[in-house]
């Protein structure tokens, strides 16, 4: 079974803890990692890639010291190793311009404003991981019971 990773990054530990708590139901079949900075994420992504594992989804806050979430997601989107990785911006402080930049240059797949709804986050991440599995050409049958069934049906048509 291919190891699938979801990485969450936020410089505020309490927000990161809330995201991890909300994603806990997915830990049965996904490896959920957390980081507190863009540099930490990039280092972790290199390690995961070197181990031959998959980074299905990257969830990033926007306002962080050093590198913003949009800058991080844009950098990841330009790295061919993560061509199929789905990108989520989860923030309470992005401006309209930041959001447009995230869509246009970072190719984000989903945007959530803080505070988010836990069930919406879980549903979205499930759908995005399902899309990742198909986009990356992985064998979906080993994950079938966990996947977003509507996306599976749409992809098999």
Automatic annotation (TrEMBL):
One biological process term in Gene Ontology: phosphorelay signal transduction system
The organism's place on the tree of life at top rank: Bacteria
Positions where 4-aspartylphosphate occurs in the chain: 61
SUPFAM superfamilies named among the record's database cross-references: CheY-like (SSF52172)
Keywords on record: Phosphoprotein
Response regulatory domain segment(s): 5-129
InterPro entries: Bact_response_regulator, CheY-like_superfamily, Sig_transdc_resp-reg_receiver
Protein name as it appears in the record: Response regulatory domain-containing protein
Organism of derivation: Vibrio panuliri
């Amino acid at each position: 079974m291919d190891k699938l990773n979801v990485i969450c990054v936020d410089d505020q530990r309490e927000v990161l803890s809330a995201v991890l708590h909300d994603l806990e139901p997915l830990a049965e079949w996904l490896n959920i990692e957390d980081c507190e900075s863009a540099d930490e994420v990039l280092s972790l992504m290199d390690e995961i890639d070197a181990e031959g594992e998959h980074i299905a989804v990257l969830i990033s806050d926007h306002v962080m010291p050093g590198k913003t979430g949009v800058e991080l997601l844009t950098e990841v989107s330009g790295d061919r190793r993560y061509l199929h990785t789905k990108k989520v911006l989860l923030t309470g402080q992005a401006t309209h311009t930041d959001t447009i930049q995230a869509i246009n240059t970072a190719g984000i797949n989903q945007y959530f404003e803080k505070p988010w709804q836990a069930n919406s986050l879980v549903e979205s991440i499930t759908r995005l991981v399902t899309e990742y599995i198909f986009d990356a050409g992985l064998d979906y049958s080993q994950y079938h019971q966990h996947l977003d069934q509507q996306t599976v049906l749409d992809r098999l048509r």
